Amino acid sequence: MSSGFNDELHSLTLSEDGSYTAFSKEYDEHYHSTKDGALNESLVKHVVPAFSVTDKDEINILDICYGLGFNTLATVVYVKENFPNKKINIYSPELDASLIESLPKFTYPKEFDGLEDIIKCLSESNVYTDEQFHIELFVGDAREYIKQFNDKFDIVYQDAFSPSTNPILWTKEYFADIKSTMKEEAVLTTYSIAFKIRLALYENGLELYTNSGKDYRTATVASAKELDKFDRVDMPHKISCNQDIMSLRDGDI
Ligand SMILES: C[S@@+](CC[C@H](N)C(=O)[O-])C[C@H]1O[C@@H](n2cnc3c(N)ncnc32)[C@H](O)[C@@H]1O
C-alpha cells in the first residue's frame, strides 16, 4: 500500500483492532503489536493503566519514544474525554527526524480525527501548546535527553523497540536515569514482561505489577508506590528461582 508515508523505511500494516501501525525496515520490527492492535495497545498497556493510578490536576508524561505518536495522541483523546480539567505536559524523544516529518501522511485511526493540528504542529515545529496540552518532541537520543530531568514525571510510557532490537533503551543503567526523572509517586508502563527487564526496574527501586486483561497480552506497570489496582509480582521469589538471570547492562551491548 502506498500512502506517501516514509515509504523507503516503513510499510503500513493493518493491525487487528483495525488501526494501522508501521513496520520498520531498519529495526525489522513493527511499531506495535499487530495482534493487540496499535490503538488498543496504546490505550490498554499505557494510557488507561497509567491514568488509573495517577490522580493529579497537572500531569507530566515522558513518552519513550514518540515513533508514530500513538501513545501521545491516545493520551490526548483519552484525557479530553475523561479528564477535561486536567493539564497535561508530554515530553517525547525520537531519534528519527524523517519519521516525524512524514507523520501528517500516516493513516491514523478515526479516533484521532480532530488531532490533525497537533500532528502537523509537532511534525513541523516539534512543539504544540493549547490551554490543556503542552507537547514537546526532542529529535535525538533518548539516553541523552532524559539526563536533564530530575523528579519531573508522573508517568513514563516505556515503549521502545524490543530489548533484543534496541537493548540500549532497556538496561539497568538506562532505567537508573529513568528512575531519576520520576517523581516518588510516579508510574512506568511497558509492554515488556521479560524477567531481565523487570529485574532492571526492580534493581532501581521499582516494584513490579502485572497489567492483564482479556483483549491484550499481559504487560507491566512499575512504581515505587503501592498500587492496589494491579497484582504485584513477587520479585524476591522470582529472583530466587532464576538466579542465573541478570538484568541487561550497558556493558553487555
Ligand atoms: C516502538 S517505536 C515507538 C512507538 C510509539 N510509542 C508509538 O506509539 O507509535 C520505537 C521508536 O524509538 C525510536 N528510537 C530508537 N532508538 C532511539 C533512541 N536512542 N532515542 C530516541 N528514539 C529512539 C525509533 O526511531 C522508533 O520510532
SS content category: alpha/beta
Task: Give the low-confidence spans.
Answer: none
Mean model confidence by pLDDT = 96
- Radius of gyration, in Å, reads 17 Å
Helix content: 25-40%
Q: Strand content of the residues, in percent?
A: 25-35%
- List of distinct ligands in this structure: S-adenosylmethionine
Report the principal-axis shape: globular
Topology as a string of helices (H) and strands (E): EEEHEHEHHEEHEHEHEEEH
For the sheet with most strands, the description reads: 9 strands, mixed
- Quick one: how many beta strands? 12
- Strand order of the biggest β-sheet: 6-7-5-4-8-9-11-10-12
The N- to C-terminal Cα distance equals 36 Å
Q: What is the number of helices? A: 8
Précis, in short:
The protein is 29% helix and 27% strand.
Explain how this protein is built.
This protein has eight helices and twelve strands. α6 links the parallel β8 (153-158) and β9. By secondary structure, the chain is of the alpha/beta class. The protein is 29% helix and 27% strand. The structure holds S-adenosylmethionine (SAM).
Helix-strand blueprint:
Elements: E1 10-14, E2 20-24, E3 29-30, H1 38-52, E4 58-64, H2 70-82, E5 87-94, H3 97-102, H4 116-125, E6 127-129, E7 133-139, H5 142-145, E8 153-158, H6 172-181, E9 182-190, H7 195-202, E10 207-213, E11 216-223, E12 231-232, H8 235-241
Helix pairs in contact: 1-2, 6-7
